[in-house]
Amino acid sequence: MRMGKGAEVPPQPPVPPHCTVASAGAAGYAPHRERTRMTTARDRFAALAALDDAAIDVPTGALVIAQEAYAALDIDLYLARLDDLAAAARPHVPASLAVAERMARLTRFLYVEQGFTGNDRSYYDPRNSFLNEVLDRRTGIPITLSIVYCAVGQRLGLSLGGVGFPGHFLVKHLGDPEIIADPFFGKLVTVEECAARLREVYGPNARFDHAYLRPASPRDILVRMLSNLKRVYVENGDVMRTLSCIDRILLLTPEAVQELRDRGLLYRKLECFGPALRDLEHYLRLAPQGEGADAVRAILPALQRDAAHVQ
Does position 25 have pLDDT exceeding 60, yes or no? Predict the structure, then answer.
């Protein structure tokens, strides 16, 4: 996976606060100004992550995620952009119509009249995961386009929710009739088409389970957004931005032991030996038989020596 041609790389995130000055200086990471800017955005995200699921507004959460990359991002401005889209769509999607026709018209409005489209040419450009960029550029990946679709539809009175379908995020009407939208391809799809998509991605023996169409919680949606970004940054070798994604996933889901393991290994790579040791020891306590547990145990003695040396 690589960023598409012309991708703009957001500013480098700061050094983890637990690292020594010597380690940070050796790595050449961000100055105090960026640490302060990111801390403010991270504080906002931590406050949002502490809310009950029902209180988390997904578009707001998505924009708070983007604030760590875009210091001047105005969240209210972009929420107002969603309001404006809904206002423009309202004459095209009257409440008097049946749900299926309303969703068909909403789809036509967003993808034909407004020009939203899935970015299949530069799928792994990180801008596709930032809601402000998706609204500005009218292109994104399934999950961010689904957030736009749901936000506009909900403002029109449609009961819509995101669906964490394996490998491809979708939207569905929450109630009868079950109507599914694929915002990446800009069309409504049937259950049979979802099953075919599953086989296309995972092989002809992949078995469809209707549970795959369960609505995702707001917390699940934000975790999936950050997981997408994490994969892009891992493939690009961007350790600091990968770490930033993991930190926020753990704020949302502290029980995500694989993220605890990954963060510990990244801290070790950054020579932040104390935090690395704490994360990896905690990982082994929570998941002694977990994936990679034996490899983690194998590096602990050296890590313990390194951590003791820098204290």
Answer: no
Show Cβ contacts of residue 154 under 8 Å, excluding neighbours closer than 6 positions.
Answer: 160
Q: Look at residues 271, 269, 259, 268 and name the one whose alpha carbon lies nearest to residue 231.
A: 259
Strand order in the sheet with 170-173: 160-163, 170-173, 180-182, 187-189
Our CA dihedral for 55, 57, 61, 62, rounded to 10 degrees, sits at 160
Please give the pLDDT value at position 16: 56
**3-state class (DSSP) for residue 140:** strand
How does pLDDT run across 186-245, given as a tens digit for each residue? 999 999 999 999 999 999 999 999 999 999 999 999 999 999 999 999 999 999 999 999
- The residues that bridge with 139 in the sheet, in sequence order, are 117
Residue 139 to residue 123: CA distance in whole angstroms: 10
- The domains of the chain, with CATH numbers, are 21-213 (3.10.620), 255-310 (no CATH)
pLDDT in tens, 96-126: 999 999 999 999 999 999 999 999 999 999 9
Give how far Cα 194 sits from Cα of 115, 197, 215, Å. Answer: 24, 5, 15
Q: Please write the tens of the pLDDT for every residue from 138-182.
A: 999 999 999 999 999 999 999 999 999 999 999 999 999 999 999
CB–CB of 252/222 below 8 Å? yes
Dist. CA 270–CA 284, nearest whole Å: 20
149 Cβ contact partners less than 8 Å away, ≥ 6 residues apart: 106, 107, 110, 160, 171, 181, 183
The per-residue pLDDT for 289 is 96
3-state secondary structure of 160: strand
- Whether this model's pTM surpasses 0.90: no
